[in-house]
Each structure stands twice: as C-alpha cells, then as structure tokens.
Amino acid sequence: MKIQLIGHASLLIETQDCRFLVDPVFVDPHGEGIEEIYPRREVLIDRIPEYDAMIISHRHFDHFDIETLAKLPKDVPVFIPEDALMQGCLEQLGYTHIQPLADFREVTLGGTRLLTTGSDAFVQEFGLVFSDSSGVLWNQVDSVINAKTIESLLARYGRIDLMLAMWQPMLEFNYQVHQSLEFPFAAYGDLLTGIGMLAPGALAPGANGFRYCGEASWLNRVVFPVTRERFCHDVVEACTALEDHVFVLDPGDGLLLDNGHTTPLPEQATYIRRTGTDDSPLRFEPVRLDAHFVDTNPDGYDADAVEAAVTAEIERDLPVFLREHSAAFAACRHWRMIYRLEVAFADHNHVWTVDFTENPPNVRRGDCPLANFFSYITGSALFGIMNGLKGWDYAVLGGFYRMHHKIYVVTPHGLVRPNFIEFKDPLSLRFAYEDVLEATLVNQINRHRQA
Length: 451
Prior knowledge:
Layout: E1 2-7, E2 10-14, E3 19-22, E4 35-37, E5 41-43, E6 53-55, H1 66-70, E7 78-81, H2 84-93, E8 98-101, E9 106-109, E10 112-117, E11 127-132, E12 135-139, H3 147-157, E13 162-165, H4 185-198, E14 202-205, E15 210-212, H5 220-223, H6 228-238, E16 254-258, E17 261-265, E18 272-274, H7 303-324, H8 330-334, E19 338-344, E20 349-355, E21 363-365, E22 373-378, H9 379-386, H10 392-397, E23 401-405, E24 409-411, E25 414-416, H11 426-430, H12 433-450
Helix pairs in contact: 7-9
C-alpha cells in the first residue's frame, strides 16, 4: 500500500488493487479565502493518476472544497458520511455515484477493505481504515475517538500497522469567543493516551498541514498550540515502541506499507510542486496578538549599547548564574524545561534557548521546536532592569514583557502536568523583583536629589 500526501488532509492511497483520492483540496487559498496548505505547494491536477474512488471525510471546507471538486471527474464512486448537505452539493456538481456510509460500515473493493470509524465530534464525519495484503492503515482524519473505537479496531485487526494521527488540539474559536488561551493539556493528553492504547506499528502526523492567511493570519499565533516536532517527540514518550517509526510528511512525500512495515518515500509525487520560501514554523504565541512586538526604546538608550549589554548578559553572565544557582532550577530540570527567550531590539529580534535537561544547561542562540517555556522582553526594558533604571512592574504592566508555558511530561499512561509548582522565568531569578525594585528606587532618589 502506498500513501502520498498531496497536502493537509488530501491523500492518494494506492492499495493492491484500488486507488483512492481522499479529501481533495487543490487550490489556495481555500476555506472561503482564509486558509492555505502549509508548507506551500502547487497541485498539477492534470498529472494526478487516475483513481477508482473518492472519499470525503466530512463537510469542513479544508476537506470539502467545491472549487476542487468542480474540476475532477464526476463518474467515479464518491464515499461520504450520511450528510444530506454534502450529498446535495455533489449532485449539483454532477457527481453520479455517491454512496453515504454510516459509522463502522465496511466496503469491499476487490482485495481491499475500507472501514469507516466514528467520531465524537459535533459534525458528521468519519475516519478511514484501509486494509489489504500489505497491512492496515488507519487515517484518523479529524475524527475524535474514544476507548471504544480503539478497542473495536484492535479486536477487528489485531494491530494497526500505520496510523495517520490527529495531533493538533486546535483552539480555533477560543480568542474570538473569550475562552481560555491556555495550552489544552487535557485534550492533548487524551490524543496521546489514545495513541498509546492503540500502539500502532508506525505513525505520521495526519491532517493539520494548513495555516491561516491574509487578514486571518493573526490566528496562527493562537490556533495551533503544538509543533509537529513536539508532537513526534511526545508520541514516542506515550508509546516507546514507536521510536524510529514516526514519520513527518510534507506535500509530495509518501509512505510505503509492505507486510506491515512502513518505509518513507520522500518527494515521491510527481504531480506536486513545492512552492514559496515562507516556511517559518507556526508558533503558538498567545501573548503576542498585537501586530508587532518591537522595541520603541521610549527612554532613548543608545541602541548599540543596549544590544551589546543584553547579549553579553544572556550569553556570558546568565550561563554562570545558572551553574552557580543550580538548586534554584531543580523544578526546571525535573519537568524538562526548554526555555525560549526572545528579545526585541530596535529593528530585529534575537532568540536564545536553554535546555534544562542538560547538565549544566547551556545558553544557545537560535530556536528550538521542543521549547515549552516562552519569554519575550524588549531590549530596552531588559537593559533598564539590568541597570536599575526600570523595574519589573514597568516591563510587565507596560506590556514590554510577556510569558507563557506548556510544561508537562508524557508517560505511557498519559500526560502529567505540575499542579503545585509555579515556574519562574530564569530572568526573574537572575534579576530578583525586590533587588530590582530597590535599585530602581535608589536611582530615582539620586536623580531627584541631583535635580
């Protein structure tokens, strides 16, 4: 069995005797103009191999795209959920062989068996199990599963050889309807627990290869709380047998399932052309919803002096402090903190990371997709704190400092998070609140005396 990723949830799945096109979305932007496949790609529709059937998992626009469907052959069988709206739309487009499928309905096509799996979501949707002589593939798509589904799959197949897993507990509406932007610990923990229970032979992150674009692009900071790298790291913690059997797919990549064994097929699809250079990772930054986090330097410090002093503090003095005050960071080590510090200077930002799983922890310039503690501060605010010119109240209340974290540990029995430890920014330990306050007050007194 061969699986080729066209982008996001769009797949071409070739079994021993059938070829299936799944959730075709070939245009960007799509979803009424607010979404695009990420990483970017161009689909050469006229080069897509002929397929025996199409499957559409549910009605959401990133899976059910009218513009794409209007361009495709109308005489192939189309399997959909029992959704009258979807069926009516397909009929209006001219599709003639539409077959709605209930949950846990099996269809046999030659030597291939297709099974729909149910979902606890509010929309009518299904996941898809493909099985033939090469093995068993479960494409979870967006379906929300429970223990009963997992038990049913294990009872029917014994083992799922390859799982395309739901992995991103999206916060699609939280900001707009005034709900919490805290990391969704419970939902993410449930995803990992389900994978651990299923214990597939191999796994790849499934749908969620998209981002918001245009006027909606600000949502990218709050909708996607997990990086693919972090998910792949965590899923091995949840199911240790998956080590070396987790694969990341970009548009055009594929997987070969043969005799229950999965092999990656990088850049396999000749009808996919990767485009664009804006491939910076999506980053969950719920404290940075304003358009820019820049240093306006309101006190007029010399910009070069600020950058030089701050850089020396972070790269020279902070590592010494971390080593000399090791006991103060016991919780950071225990909970495997990877600290990401971003400093905004006048016309650019710098990022440093500290991995507290290392002994001693080292400060490195650059990003880390596994980071779980995030700190942002303007260079002038940090410079003021370092020199007793400004206090932490100035930085925090003025919005020149922001912080959030998503600290947890994954075990085979679920996600564990601290419930009695208040994690502090290493900067706040390096420059203690009371010490900074005292220095600031002394400086204020001296300035007024001189005046």
